[in-house]
Amino acid sequence: YVTSIPGSGARDGLSVVYSMQAVALFILILASINVGNLLLSRAIERSKETAIRVALGAPRLRLISQMLWESTIICTVGALIGLLVMAWGLEITQGIVATFFSDPPAFWWKFGLDSYTLKLFFAIVVGTILVTGLLPAWKSSGGDFNAVLRDGTRGALGKKSGRLSKLLVISEIFISMTVLIAAAVMVYASYMQSNKDIGAETENVLVANVLVTAYDSAEKKIQFVNTLQSRLENSSGISEVMIASALPGLYSLEANIAIEGQEYSNITNASYPSANYISIMPGSLAKLGVELRTGRYFDHSDDGLGKTSVLISESFAQQHFPEQSAIGKRIRVIKQGSDKVQWLRIVGVVEHTIQGNRESEGVPSIYRPYSQAPREQITVAMKMAVKPVLVTKMLRKVLQSIDADLPSYKIETYLQSNNRLTAPIRFISNLMALFAVAALVLAASGIYGVMSNTISQRTQEIGIKRALGADDEYITKEYLMTGVKLLLFGGVPGVLAGSFMGFAMSKTFGTGNTALVVIAATMTVIIGSVVLLATYLPTKQALQLEPSQALHYQ
């Protein structure tokens, strides 16, 4: 399987990228429909004038070029403004994306205008001009001018114009429904991920990473970590110290696990369940607020490279020891290329913690004392009694006193390190929220414009119906039923398309199908209300005219 380097890094996020591209395209189509509808309405109003000019011998090309100029000017001015906004937005995005990484981003994380973007820009501008201007001009200037002169009477709506208006409304309902559902799922996923309980307390804690690769033996690594924790705990301004290979909420090493009594394939490791594999100092889990469910925490009786105690998360116990106690059961970590078998006895079960991306929240965890399984990188968490800058100085001073060759890096608050993991989805959801607002405004104005123009052209028809004895309630219901039919024709496919995009994103972010159903129902109510209001208000306005006034309405 061959892919690009950025593509391999995106992995499951590609569905989100494709969804955003589809939403952007839908918004462009919405804007094009609105502009095209305005120009088409003007062309329809002038259709008899155009037909007369054709009958008098005016060249069709000249008529098209005259009507195309208006679309060209509108789209060109809008495109130039859009290009400036795009350049400004990409510059802002470059700075925002840089905050997603603790280290400098990879070289391909570069946002800005390039030749490909400009080519795409000009192609979209030309395409939009053709869609919004050429099609209405071609339709208005072509065909049988005798039929145009006969189609519709003064102030009435022609058959072809009526069908086109309905098609425009159906298209706007479909697109707006699709965009709103997809955007709402993204916003909901961002909210859920940003507010998930990772299983640990993150307030007022400073974290830092330290590499201990300079020590070539496990004993030296253990001695260094013990000395570091002891001296930090005796430093003023630091109330508690927690040391682990990975703190809750942050990425950790994953390992394949074997359960005693279970059979696994010897051919591949794919049959082994996986879990986050974390080394941690005794007492750190309790200080972090990770609650004990059953059994006990680690203590100093677990110290020693020959000891084999292990803690498991509640999710691990539920997955592998359902309806039975996990205390005393044995598991082992599968190590590639090693024939050594070391069984670990479970001494306690702690609450579930999330490690890394919030969408991987279901991965369980196992914990070993650092003195049994030392690592080459550790994360130090310090509860602060003073300002972070003072705690940072204390940490560097303590490290300098132990070993000047072991610097600390990625020093930040626990909240900052966790927020960085959810920053990308928050940024994308904010963009999707802007897309949703734009789509709603475009759809509402477009639907109202088309329906208002349609009903306005049927004012004489309304006057005739009232003159023949139809009451206002009957006429209102008739037009509202027309709006309901348009809502069904555009809304049902829109709900299906939006739900499909939302389902793809919900599978990535784990938002669940129930939320998708609620969102789809909510968006249906919103768009339905827009359609009914866009039908009711112009109808009410037309009914305020006396039948005699409506019959002479221009």
What does this structure look like?
By secondary structure, the protein is of the alpha+beta class. The protein has helices at 5-10, 14-45, 47-55, 60-98, 115-141, 145-150, 159-194, 218-233, 284-288, 314-320, 388-402, 414-457, 459-467, 472-509, 513-543, 547-551, and strands at 205-211, 238-244, 254-259, 274-280, 292-295, 309-313, 330-334, 344-350, 365-369, 377-384, 408-413. The protein has a 6-stranded mixed beta barrel. Strands 2-10-1-11 form a 4-stranded antiparallel beta sheet. The chain starts with a helix and ends with a helix. Residues 153-157 have low confidence and may be disordered. It is built from 16 helices and 11 strands. The longest helix has 44 residues, at 414-457. 59% of the residues lie in helices and 12% in strands. Helix 2 crosses helix 3 (47-55), helix 2 (14-45) packs parallel to helix 5 (115-141) and helix 8 packs across helix 11.
A few lines on this structure:
Helices cover 59% and strands 12% of the residues.
Please supply descriptive tags for the structure shown above.
554 residues; alpha+beta; four-stranded antiparallel beta sheet; 16 helices; elongated
